[in-house]
Amino acid sequence: MSKYQLDSSPIYIDGTDIPNNKLELQDSDLIHEIENNLLKEAYQTFLSKINNTTKFNEIFFINLHKKTFESLYNFAGVYRDVNMTKGDSQFCLAQYLDNESKRIFQELENDNYLKNCKDKKEFVNKLTYYQSELIALHPFYELNGRILRLFCDLLCVYNGYKLIDYSSAIDNGKYIEASIDCVQYADNSKLEDIIFNGLVKDQ
Ligand SMILES: Nc1ncnc2c1ncn2[C@@H]1O[C@H](COP(=O)(O)OP(=O)(O)O)[C@@H](O)[C@H]1O
Ligand SMILES: [Mg+2]
Known about the structure:
Oligomer: single chain
Largest sheet: 2 strands, antiparallel
Helix content: 40-55%
Bound molecules: adenosine-5'-diphosphate, magnesium ion
Number of helices: 8
Order of helices and strands: HHEEHHHHHH
Structural class: mainly alpha
Radius of gyration: 17 Å
CATH architecture: Orthogonal Bundle
């Protein structure tokens, strides 16, 4: 299967599954390597920046996408204005995207960025809810999964946990299965298991 799934998105080089990029690269392995390096750098940069006053709001979220990938992509930090699907999943319709995003981030702010959770179970339950909402939002043309997991990882560190280990769930397809349940059936239970098992307290 191709690494880049063709969906109704204008960002790809005509007739290919490769995103238009500022380096004019057409080698998808090389692009993936560059994306992975940019993401690693972003983890270092943002982990060193977050502190007790960080606001995990929409601007912060958009900025993560922008700062991480702006050297490679013009669409970094830009919400899509087309409808997108993957498999049988329809993500938030483009016309509702702005409002939906504002609603989700307002809820997270009202939830005090999860600072008031009494234990790991409650923290995981709430984090799963927001991750599921943002999976269904799928606001960017590409790189939604990686930026969303970065955002949630930073939220974990802010709340005294370590980064979530998603590696086996991503490798064995369980993360996609969980995402399908979230988007198509509003069922977060598989995602909650993945997050619960991947999360440990930073002692
Ligand atoms: N069939 C699907 N149904 C619902 N969600 C999906 C499906 N396939 C992928 N996803 C979600 O979309 C994310 C991938 O989006 P994408 O923008 O390509 O990000 P990335 O390039 O970082 O993987 C996955 O992490 C998953 O949460
Ligand atoms: Mg992708």
